[in-house]
Design brief:
Elements: H1 2-29, E1 33-45, H2 55-68, E2 76-79, E3 94-104, E4 115-125, H3 137-146, E5 153-158, E6 173-181
Antiparallel strand pairs: 1-3, 1-4, 2-3, 4-6, 5-6
């Protein structure tokens, strides 16, 4: 037993050194950078085969995706001109999106006051965020193609597989880093 304890003590500085290097890497990756908020307005029309949303349901899911993807907390997603009425599933559900994304300031040029931002990892998967389910696969695909380009992203790892008209074989797996504002300080 004493021999095992001596080995642990001998290797402790090495293990501690590796832990400190990993921690230092996280800190440098989280160093705030200057960014400016950019406003976006977009009319999103969903057409899918597996899931049908009411316009209100579509607007709710899109707001979840906007916030998860790094949009400012005041993002708005409202239902728009649905033929079937409130709460009824509609094959051509629409939602109007108004949101702000943070863009890194390049070359010191900016038209609005800069704010501090960081690159944050985002994972969109089944139940991540918890409001997403496999039936939302086509919605996440269309969000990725139509809305995500409005965000400052990098290191996109797209492993989405959406099989029309069925859940088996579908997979929501989209990972990326997004430039977003620092979390608001908690009020005491």
């Amino acid at each position: 037993m004493k021999l095992l304890g001596a080995r642990k003590a001998r290797y402790a500085p090495i293990i501690w050194g590796f832990a400190m290097m990993a921690f230092a890497g996280e800190l440098s990756a989280a160093d705030p950078e200057q960014g400016v908020w950019q406003k976006h307005e977009y009319s999103f029309q969903f057409l899918g085969f597996t899931t049908t949303y009411s316009c209100e349901g579509l607007a709710g899911k899109l707001k979840v995706l906007l916030i998860a993807a790094g949009a400012r907390a005041d993002a708005k997603s409202t239902s728009s001109a649905c033929a079937r009425g409130y709460g009824s599933p509609d094959k051509f559900a629409r939602a109007n999106l108004t949101f702000h994304t943070l863009a890194p300031v390049e070359n010191g040029e900016n038209s609005s006051p800069p704010v501090k931002g960081v690159w944050r990892s985002v994972v969109l998967a089944d139940r991540s965020p918890r409001e997403l389910a496999l039936g939302d696969c086509e919605l996440v695909e269309q969000f990725r193609d139509k809305v995500l380009p409005m965000f400052a992203t990098r290191n996109i790892d797209n492993r989405m597989t959406c099989v029309p008209n069925q859940l088996s074989g579908s997979l929501i797996n989209l990972k990326f880093e997004v430039f977003t504002g620092l979390p608001a300080a908690k009020k005491k």
